[in-house]
Amino acid sequence: MPLTPVLSAHWDEADSYTLDGYRRHGGYDALPIAFAQQSDDVIQLVKDSGLRGRGGAGFPTGMKWGFVPQGDGKPHYLVVNADESEPGACKDVPLMLANPHSLVEGVIIASYAIRANHAFIYIRGEVPHAIRRVAAAVREAYAAGLLGSNIEGSGFDLEVTVHAGAGAYICGEETALLDSLEGFRGQPRLKPPFPAVAGLYGSPTVVNNVETIASVPSIVANGADWYTSYGSEKSPGVKLFAVSGHVERPGIFEAPMGTTMRELLQWAGGMRKGHRLKFWVPGGSSVPLLTEEHLDVPYTYEDIAAAGSMLGTGTPMVFDETTSVTRAVTRWLEFYKHESCGKCTPCREGTYWLVDLLRRLEAGIGSDTDITRINEVSAQIAGRSFCALGDAAATPFPGAIKYFADEIALGTHTTAAELFDPVAATVFTGVNA
Amino acid sequence: MTVTTASTTGDAIEPRPDVVTLTIDGVQTSVPKGTLIIRAAEQLGVAVPRFCDHPLLDPVAACRMCLIEVEGMPKPQPACAVTCSDGMVVKTQMTSGVADEAQRSVMEFLLINHPLDCAICDKGGECPLQNQAMTNGQGDTRFDGPKRTFPKPINLSAQVLLDRERCVSCARCTRFAEQIAGDPFIELLERGSQQQVGIAAGIPFNSYYSGNTIQICPVGALTSAMYRFRSRPFDLVSTPTACEHCASGCSLRTDSRRNSVMRRLAAVDPDVNEEWNCDKGRFAFRYLESDRRLSTPLIRENGQLRSASWNEALVAAAAGLKAATGKTGVFTGGRLMVEDAYAYSVFTRRVLGTNDIDFRPRGSSTEEEMFLANRVAGRGLGPTYADLEASQTVLLVAFEPEDESPIVFLRLRKAARAGTQVVSIAPSASRGLVKTGGTWIPAAPGSEAFVVDDLNDDWVAALGQPGAVILVGQRAAASEGLLSAVVRLADRTGANLGWIPRRAGDRGAVDAGLLPTLLPGGRPVADAAARVDTAAIWGVADVPEAPGRDITGMLAAIESGDLEAILVSGVRMDDLPTGSEAGLRDARFVVALDTHHHELVELADVVLPVAAAPEKAGTFINWEGRKRSSSQALTTSLMSDARVLAALAGELGFDDIDGDPARLRAQLDEFAGWEGARVGSPEVVAADPETGTGFLLATWRPLLEPTAMQEGEPYLAATAPKRQVWLSPSEAATIGATEGQPITVSGASGSVTAPLVVTEVAEGTVVVTGDAYRSVGHIDGRVQVAV
Predict the structure, then answer these.
(1) Global pTM?
(2) For residue B458, what are the domain limits?
(3) End of a domain among B470, B504, B538?
(4) Chains A, B: CB pairs < 8 Å
């Protein structure tokens, strides 16, 4: 399958992030097309395109927009979730750096569709460079009359606020994000009511991922049929695949859904010289890992699920044979323990317990009981936590032991460092050798 | 709710739109729409374990202890947050392995970082975590790692302590503070297993309601400084009591050990205090064991008080009163239970043969007397707490609920959260008003009557709607013409009018007729039929016909020699108008019935000790007119006021005066339902406010202050708000003062200095929080304010 650059088509141009650079390639041309239609027709178009949320859950975007009650007399809000914090996920931040106007244009169209007059872009606080880029793009758009009142003579008004988060993984969970945006401590809210009914400030709100919203202008400009000509029936369109880890050329590859990991690996220049693939994680640390046998699984929501994992953010992390799977899983769990918001018991206490057990295995002082216990504790978290973060924390170990039970069992007598030289797994390996 | 088992014959029941029918553990049940699964299960007798769930707090579903299985849902659901729907099939831990396993899992998680120090924990023995670990957990832990620890304990306030390692992050305390009290001074901080309850730096949890968080904490994380490590739950004897501190009328549970009160808890009473009380009611009981408690009678000999036997003291008291026959007046305060109040009413009329009795040491107002006789006395129940909650509009006049009747505040806030509009005619927009989302109608002290009369049409219309309530505070008596104006407004609009006094015994005193023109049950002294009726119930030929004197009148009569003796009970010198002391010293003979030594007692010729409220059984009547019965929590050799009066009456030759509280209450009940003449409505016209230089002083007694019944509890005292001076922005600018600057307010009696708060205050008015009348005093109705 070939690369299909849409969002990333002009990232190599020096001014790709400017209004001029965006306009040179048809930027903001989708706006008049959208404004010429009724809002409901725009929603229908997005429904027809089959676009699914690119934040990880893959919820159909048009359907989400359709949930917003209309004529309810309340203000509506669009909130862009740009709190990209998932370990391994690195697609939204580059997109915002290189092509922020696609996001802004998408925000305008999506707001027009759901009849929101105020949109918020909630960007992870640790990426000030991306915040500056997006804020600059919004400023440019205001100056060009693309934001504000009566945009392009359409009669549609839209204010856009760029908001910086303060550094919490949980704020990527949409309701925690809303709490944070309202100025509260970020913790997930009880659902129902769902944000589409009572979201930001208790009003109907759509929360969408950056890539999702940025994909909208191209769909409006080229039509739903164009979009569905890519990918599969259930997973149409193109996607940014961010490949990281032990490959020669880590990077972002925009390709149709259905592309395989084998193709992505080729574009990424293959594994590090002299090394071979051990395992890969298709969509962030919250999804179970896969191995070499899954390299030809098409990158669609349904095929990856059938293979026992999830598409997630579509940002594969690749690990070669220098990696200790025990160490990798421990690091992930340490992340979840650190980022657990503390609201619910299973996630708060379960991640605390899992880290304790995993560290024993990493230190070579674990027991068979510990291994059983990690599986049990993971199962005790899964499906019982308040939000998906708990489920995510319950994922890595059961996924790993499926393929690497023997290696994990070595943690009952040998340290992970002895089995796998930590330096060998880093980019510094061999530097001082 | 109806409960039918699945096996009953299928009688067709018409479906009701407001009811849903579901199955819980195989039992079919119908519940009102919107009912949470956990509540529906409770009604079937199925206890789903829970920590964060509380019926009076919004669901949060944080602890995950109540996970149950709902058919068709892929994951276990929190029973505390999912509402019942038609046809739902619910399986709790009783019938679902999934639910049982999920609950055991959560319990195991909760215990891994819990210290399991039950043996030394205050909560041990009454701990939901301990109990549910036994019922819904496993006997042993599989966790063998290091537990998370914290330095312990930390102060959230002087009174409330937090042992963070015991906390299960249920957020009951923080939700109570935010949702119920409106004092979000505590919040969860940090993340993950480091999550903990905390306060902002330098801003302690000084809420009037902070103690409730200790009671609803499902573990031993929150403790009070005054109870911590003092007792174990299983050593305590619990007695249902009514709170003696104010007219809110809370049901309490008094827990004592070896005849000493260890703690007090709010009892569940949905009609009154729901499940809450205020910190004064919870913590202020050390006065019972004060060094100043009177334990034996005292008589004056050679100018000094000395201990005496009951016999000697009663003889001396009787002799003194006999010598002043027809010239004895009675002052009672607000601490009396209604049985005792009634005993004073009987004693005064029958034994002393006079109507010279007044329960209002705070000052006399004929207008108030008429108001009470006309609108309050013997009127029975209403308006009620439920009326407040059901009303669309509640108007407050001369009433600061948070300070003056804290449970009324909680109910107003609950009502306001559900849409009730609270309006206050007051000198300032207090924080309490802001917390009820209320509307402030400015009224400078002295001008309230005009403001009430001039209320705009919108508010008058709102008060004309069914269910509207006007609550007028006791302080209204101090503003001439105000009670008359309030009565006019209530009559004009048809709004339900409630009077809210400060002290627990005030309403009972009104009902018992402790006023110079009022017999029990709202009967006017001036009405012949009322006197005949009263005499009939008492089994006597007649009752005194001449109207009595109020406190001011009695003090004047002492000076003029028309009165020679005073019988005083539960009144402190500080309660009386300034300058009363000299008058009392002029009295030839003073008999004091009291619980504690104090200035007025020191002045008496005979002192008769009496039991305090927790030491006797009896009844308070709260502001609603509701009986609040209280059992005897402590044994004592002291007698109630009523029994002492009966003994004294016996000494005076009246052998048929009863001192038995049950019989007294039964007799008082005979006075209910008076349909004869009443004292007329007050029709006092307010005088035009005088103009003068300086400011009008607005001040009222706060909930927490160093009074006799709050002594011995320094932790409570330390949570009292510090005194402030409030000025409007323009007045502050006029005197050149800025926020936080010390401001001195001075008058005839002296001055106070406190930091300035610039806020909404009526024109020409200065508010001094924490009662300052006595320490400042007026000069021509005015005070001076300076930086």
Answers:
(1) 0.95
(2) 376-504
(3) B504
(4) 91
